[in-house]
Amino acid sequence: GTLLDAGKSDAEGLWRGTAAPRGLVVARSGAHFAAARADAPWGEDPAPRVYLYTDRPVYRPGHKMFFKGVARRAAAAAWKVEAGSAAVAVRDPKGGLHLETTLALSPAGTFDGELVLPEVPALGRWTLTATVAGRAEAAPFEVQAYRKPEFKVTVEPGSPTARLGAAGSFA
After folding, report:
1. 49-58: buried (b, 16+ CB within 10 Å) or exposed (e) per residue?
2. Residue 103, Cβ neighbours under 10 Å: how many?
3. Alpha carbon of 50 to those of 39, 87, 137: distances in Å?
4. d(CA 93, CA 140)
C-alpha cells in the first residue's frame, strides 16, 4: 500500500486528512491499533452511521447488559453529530423481542441503556439493533449458561510425618 497522509486526532478525537475512496485507514496508539475500510462517503450522506457496543461480549442469565451507541453523519469531509432519537431493540436467537424503546440522542449524538436478561433465556447470539433517521445498525452479543467448574485436587505428602522447619514434598 501507499501512505497517503498521516497525522494526529484533534481535541474532538477526529482526524482529517487525504484518503483514497477505497483502501484502509489504520490508527495506532502505542502498541494498540485499529483498522477500518476507507470507503465511507466523503460528501453529504443522507443516512447517519450508528456505532453500537455492549459492556461485555458474553452475559449469563439474569445479568444486566449495558449498551451504548454513537450516531454520526458524513458531511463535507467531516463527521457531524446526529440529532433526534434512536429506536432500540434487543432480540434473542429465536427472534424473541426483549427490549423495544426509543432513546433521545444526547447533544453529543450518543444514547445508552440497559436490559436485565431473563433468568431462563434463549442461549446463543443475541442482537442489539438501533435505528437512527432510517438507518439500522446491529451489534451481536452472547448469552451463555453458567456452569460451575468441576475439578478435584488431591495432595499426598511425600512422608507420613514432618518436622517443624524441615522441607517437605507433595505429589
Report:
1. bbebebeeee
2. 17
3. 16, 11, 6
4. 10
Q: In the prediction, which pLDDT does 38 show? A: 63
Residue type, 112: D
C-alpha cell at 53: 457496543
Per-residue pLDDT of 135-168, as tens digits, reads 999 999 999 997 778 888 888 888 888 888 888 8
Collapse the DSSP code of 11 into the 3-class scheme (helix H, G, I; strand E, B; otherwise coil) and give the result: coil
Contact predicate 135/50, CB 8 Å: yes
Tell me the pTM. 0.63
CB of 130 within 8 A of CB of 122? no
Name the nearest CA neighbour of 14 among 75, 104, 86, 68: 75
The torsion region of residue 119 among left (phi > 0), alpha (psi -120 to 50) and beta comes to: alpha
Calculate the alpha carbon distances from 122 to 63, 115, 141 in Å.
14, 15, 13
Cross-strand pairs, 53: 68
